[in-house]
């Protein structure tokens, strides 16, 4: 048998790619479109909890995108207390395979991929579901994906008011300073959830709760707003879905599977089900379901994270790395 080689892209390689905001958004949107057209296979993520005492778990995401001729598996560690050790809370590896033979194509440090594609999914959801004139963002959470949420939302909407809040003062202050420096506009740091989200055009809940707690009150949501909750543990009230004109998810299969997710209780109690779900975002991107249809619609978009987005963004990175001569060729056999 001839030697089999695959490409390895480490974190430094990926940083040197200097993907633009539009490259990130385009890659993830292509993955959504393929999903909406039925050209993908996605299986609900599964979880490994090694020991409850470690206060963390692994997510395993699996998928296939026919137009890219790639299958992929991503493993991401989600350890909420890692900041105490100076470590990121989420670290990941993405494996890409040839779906025709099962042979490895690439292995990528997927930590940045996870952050970028999560922010891209938030922003693309808003592109289709928020009011076009949305200018005020209320953002809860300051984890790594939060930066990309705000950056890519600002890319699309050129926000005039950005409010941020997180549990730890030092975290939210550092987050706001980074945003102000890189976006070149003021960022308001709030002391509480209400001040952050009340009356905002777009509300993003990316908190890092250790257990479910309804900190985001339904009464704070303005008519016509878009709400995007995606915390691992729910921070919203059960009544949140009652005020929504449309509810959209990234993938219904994984929305109603597994123990985690911002709307877990809504699914478990039947408040969110297949009959009152408006669409998956991919169906909207592909033109098979309507997006926002009026300014006064209040809409909820819940995304749990798509393996397809990881694969699509990983493929874009792999292509750009080849053009720039980055990465290492490793021998598999």
Summarize the structure.
With 333 residues, this protein is of the alpha/beta class.
Topology:
Elements lengths: L4 E5 L1 H7 L3 H16 L3 E9 L7 E10 L4 E10 L10 E8 L6 E6 L1 H19 L6 E5 L3 H14 L3 E5 L3 H15 L4 E2 L3 H5 L4 E4 L20 E4 L16 E4 L2 H4 L8 H5 L10 E2 H5 L13 E4 L4 H18 L3 E4 L2
Parallel strand pairs: 1-6, 7-8, 7-10, 8-9, 10-11, 11-14, 12-13, 12-14
Antiparallel strand pairs: 1-15, 2-3, 3-4, 4-5, 5-6
Helix pairs in contact: 2-3, 2-10, 3-4, 3-10, 4-5
Structural class: alpha/beta
What overall geometry do the principal axes of the alpha carbons give?
Answer: globular
Number of helices: 10
Main sheet overview: 8 strands, parallel
Numbering strands along the chain, what is their spatial order in the largest sheet? 9-8-7-10-11-14-12-13
Strand content: 15-25%
Estimated radius of gyration: 19 Å
Nearest-integer average pLDDT? 94
Kindly state the percentage of residues in helix: 25-40%
Straight-line distance between termini: 9 Å
The counted number of beta strands is 15
What is the N-to-C succession of helices and strands? EHHEEEEEHEHEHEHEEEHHEHEHE
Uncertain residue ranges: none
Plain-language structure description:
The chain is of the alpha/beta class. It is built from 10 helices and 15 strands. The protein has helices spanning 11-17, 21-36, 111-129, 144-157, 169-183, 193-197, 252-255, 264-268, 281-285, 307-324, and strands at 5-9, 40-48, 56-65, 70-79, 90-97, 104-109, 136-140, 161-165, 188-189, 202-205, 226-229, 246-249, 279-280, 299-302, 328-331. It has an 8-stranded parallel sheet. It has a 7-stranded mixed sheet with strand order 2-3-4-5-6-1-15. α4 packs parallel to α5 (169-183). It is globular, with a radius of gyration of 19 Å. The N and C termini lie close together (9 Å). The model has no long low-confidence stretch (mean pLDDT 94).
